[in-house]
Structures are given as structure tokens and as C-alpha cells.
Design a protein that fits this description.
alpha/beta, Glutaredoxin, 7-stranded mixed β-sheet, 6 helices, 7 strands
Length: about 170
């Protein structure tokens, strides 16, 4: 697990919202089995790196982009964290999934299994993580409004790191 810092200008300091998310995520437990999905997730939209860049640039709120694959065991461990974060902050931050190097049927089964109901894109060739410099799977990218990359977290993300970066996005965008 390596984190590569982006162009951060603010210092890390705890904020109330992040503390709440840490508590909620900790209560959820990274190893907890999520309830089965109801199939209401967004369809896996095929995209290119250029198309995804245009999509991010049009966002007027910060975005958390999780790069995952159905065959990725660490992705299975962190999926519940993204569900809780989306439920908690989905009105302030866009949560976006990018399925890579996978098949659509396996990816759709993963979304159903974990009930991931935010938008997901299908990137069979890994063009999106390659564009933004991510390494391996999973990867979590944190973007400011307008699609400006702020931070990249390579590898599985834990509840505290996710909460801290969400807090930073909200603080810097507020």
C-alpha cells in the first residue's frame, strides 16, 4: 500500500464530519458481510479515459473514484466502506466506481453482491487508472470539483484513510 501525495495545500486536521464517518465505518467493520444488493445499481457504462476525464470535469462537487475488479480480494474487503461513505456523504461528494480488467457479467454480479448503488464505469483496458497514475487494484482517487486530482491512494483503503481524505475534500471545497 503506497500513497502518493497530490498537490495538497491544507494541513491535516481532524474535522467533526470525518470523525463521524470513522465511527460509522468502524462500526460497519471492513470484514463485515454486506446485505445482498437489490440490483438497483447504476449500469456499468463503458468509457474511455478521455470520456471519463470529460465526465469528471463537468462535476460541480468533489469526487471519490474507486478502481476495482470482481476478482480483486482487497476490493471485496473495501466495498462495504464505500457503501457507508456513499450513504453518509453522497449528497456532498460524487462516489464513482471504475471496474477494470474484468468481464461485465462478473462485474455486475459484484455490484449486486455488495449493493453498490452509485455510478460505475467499465474500463476493460485500465485506461482510467493509467491516465491518472494509479498502480495495481484497488486504487482510490480523490478529485476536487471540476476533475482536479488531489490525491491517489494505491492499494486497499481503510476506514480512517477514506474518512480523512473525504474530510479534506469537503474542507477544501467548502
Amino acid at each position: 500500500m503506497h500513497s502518493s501525495p497530490g498537490p495538497r495545500t491544507s494541513s491535516r486536521r481532524p474535522l467533526a464530519g470525518g470523525a463521524v464517518l470513522v465511527l460509522v465505518l468502524a462500526a460497519c467493520g471492513a470484514g463485515a458481510t454486506p446485505p445482498p444488493g437489490d440490483g438497483s445499481h447504476a449500469i456499468l457504462t463503458p468509457t474511455t479515459a478521455a470520456g471519463f476525464e470529460v465526465y469528471l470535469a463537468a462535476l460541480d462537487q468533489p469526487a471519490v473514484v474507486n478502481v476495482w475488479a470482481s476478482w480483486c480480494l482487497p476490493c471485496r474487503a473495501e466495498a462495504p466502506l464505500f457503501n457507508v461513505a456513499h450513504e453518509t456523504y453522497g449528497d456532498k461528494i460524487a462516489f464513482i466506481g471504475v471496474d477494470v480488467a474484468d468481464t461485465r457479467p462478473a462485474a455486475l454480479a459484484f455490484l449486486d453482491e455488495f449493493g453498490l448503488e452509485f455510478d460505475h464505469f467499465f474500463d476493460k483496458d485500465r485506461a482510467i487508472p493509467n491516465r491518472y497514475g494509479g498502480i495495481g487494484t484497488p486504487i482510490t482517487f480523490f478529485f476536487a470539483p471540476g476533475g482536479v486530482l488531489v490525491f491517489t491512494h494505491n492499494g486497499i483503503i481503510d476506514d480512517r484513510t477514506l474518512a480523512m481524505n473525504i474530510d479534506e475534500l469537503l474542507h477544501s471545497s467548502g
